[in-house]
């Protein structure tokens, strides 16, 4: 067993990646209980981290080549994202707008998936039913046409050279004042009856509808429908307002299919809020809770480039982005979450991951306002090299010194 020592934060709250790490103890820091990392205890496989590109909606337009590189590259001062979400427009004439960035991101190794907000106008009714009734509803006799719409979209994207990983049934059907509402039973019935038609002749998977807040009715309806479960390849959800206590869903986590968190911003969408600190630590905490409590396989932000997102409008990484990068740069696709003492002391959150190349990433978060010296004990693996990186009020994924014994 190897013991490591690392000082978490230098004044204010911080998040740090420690690839089995350590550092000198500054005066005034207090010793915390060990975080024991156990490679013999394994949990979910991580597919990656990322966000959406939505030039169809925003006046700022598409991401530039340099911005795509900064988002999906994993070099110095790059985010290391590995998942891109794109938009299934209800107008097939607009499908081409998602392609350029999707191609560039895929070339950098990103997984691409897509979400629809609305069916085409010809097969929906305008109901203006508010959050719980939707602006639109899919006509009951047009389910087959909607399945064909999604199938055509997948084939179009694949025809552009993009390996579309999945398409979901619907974005936020349970918070649909501005888009299309679906009842939970209709979601399950559509997947059961037309899920195969959506995927026919393609390599894409079918994702469930994506609840805005991990509300359980949609998922319970699918779990309770044998044919829907057979046709649904993975589950998607959003985390708007989702508390830690709501993230654990044992029935879904144990059903044999992956759970992707496909949209959120934390803690707000205030203008020019992306660099606020210690507010940005809430991003890291939300990621931790989703991965550790919810056993998520993927964590995907809302707009990649936005004044409250991981990348600011000027193309520079924000403090929120550096918080995400503490995970995305070192917890790579195919990594498996392994055992780690989650809360070795007050205000400390830890999680650990073993990558496919055998390297181990430990992400530790200090939610407090004082520096903490955190000990890490690793078992079940020989460590040949140690590195540590920290994001704090004054640091952005800065490499820091460490010691081991």
In short:
The chain has 405 residues and is of the alpha/beta class.
CATH 2nd-level architecture of the largest domain: Alpha-Beta Barrel
Mean pLDDT: 92
Helix/strand structural class:
alpha/beta
Contiguous low-pLDDT stretches (5 residues minimum) are 9-14, 19-31
CATH class of the largest domain reads Alpha Beta
The fold-level CATH name of the largest domain is: TIM Barrel
Number of domains: 2
Structural overview:
The structure is a single chain. With 405 residues, the protein is α/β, with parallel strands linked by helices. It has nine helices and 22 strands. It has two domains: 2-44 and 338-404, Immunoglobulin-like (Sandwich), CATH 2.60.40; 47-330, TIM Barrel, CATH 3.20.20. Strands 1, 2, 3, 4, 16, 17, 18, 19, 20, 21 and 22 form an eleven-stranded mixed beta sheet that branches. An eight-stranded parallel beta sheet has the order 12-10-7-6-5-15-14-13. Strands 8-9-11 form a three-stranded mixed beta sheet, with no helix packed on it. The longest helix has 17 residues, at 143-159. The radius of gyration is 21 Å and the shape is globular. The chain starts with a strand and ends with a strand.
């Amino acid at each position: 067993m190897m013991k490591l020592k690392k000082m978490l934060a230098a004044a204010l709250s911080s998040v740090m990646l420690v690839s089995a790490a350590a550092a000198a103890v500054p005066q005034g820091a207090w010793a915390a209980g060990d975080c024991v990392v156990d490679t013999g205890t394994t949990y979910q496989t991580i597919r990656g981290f990322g966000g959406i590109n939505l030039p169809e909606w925003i006046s700022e337009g598409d991401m530039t080549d340099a911005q795509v590189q900064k988002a999906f590259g994993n070099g110095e001062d790059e985010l290391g994202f590995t998942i891109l979400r794109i938009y299934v427009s209800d107008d097939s004439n607009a499908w081409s707008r998602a392609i350029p960035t999707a191609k560039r991101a895929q070339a950098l190794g990103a997984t691409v998936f897509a979400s629809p907000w609305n069916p085409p106008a010809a097969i929906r009714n305008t109901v203006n039913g508010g959050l719980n009734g939707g602006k639109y509803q899919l006509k009951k006799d047009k389910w087959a046409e909607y399945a064909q719409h999604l199938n055509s979209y997948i084939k179009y994207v694949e025809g552009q050279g993009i390996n579309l990983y999945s398409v979901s049934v619907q974005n936020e059907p349970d918070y649909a004042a501005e888009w299309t509402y679906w009842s939970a039973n209709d979601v399950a019935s559509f997947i059961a009856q037309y899920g195969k038609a959506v995927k026919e002749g393609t390599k894409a998977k079918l994702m469930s509808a994506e609840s805005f807040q991990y509300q359980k009715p949609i998922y319970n309806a699918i779990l309770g429908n044998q044919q829907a479960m057979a046709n649904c390849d993975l589950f998607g959800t959003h985390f708007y307002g989702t508390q830690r206590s709501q993230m654990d869903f044992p029935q879904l986590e144990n059903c044999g299919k992956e759970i992707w968190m496909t949209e959120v911003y934390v803690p707000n969408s205030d203008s020019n809020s992306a660099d606020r600190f210690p507010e940005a630590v809430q991003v890291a905490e939300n990621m931790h809770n989703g991965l550790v409590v919810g056993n998520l396989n993927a964590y995907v932000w809302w707009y990649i480039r936005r004044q409250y997102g991981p990348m600011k409008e000027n193309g520079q990484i924000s403090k929120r982005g550096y918080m995400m990068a503490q995970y995305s740069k070192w917890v790579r696709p195919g990594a498996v979450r392994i055992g780690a003492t989650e809360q070795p002391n007050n205000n400390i959150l830890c999680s650990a991951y073993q990558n496919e190349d055998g390297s181990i990433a430990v992400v530790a978060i200090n939610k407090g306002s004082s520096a903490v010296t955190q000990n890490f004990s690793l078992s079940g693996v020989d460590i040949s090299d140690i590195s540590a990186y920290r994001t704090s009020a004054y640091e952005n994924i800065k490499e820091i010194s460490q010691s081991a014994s």
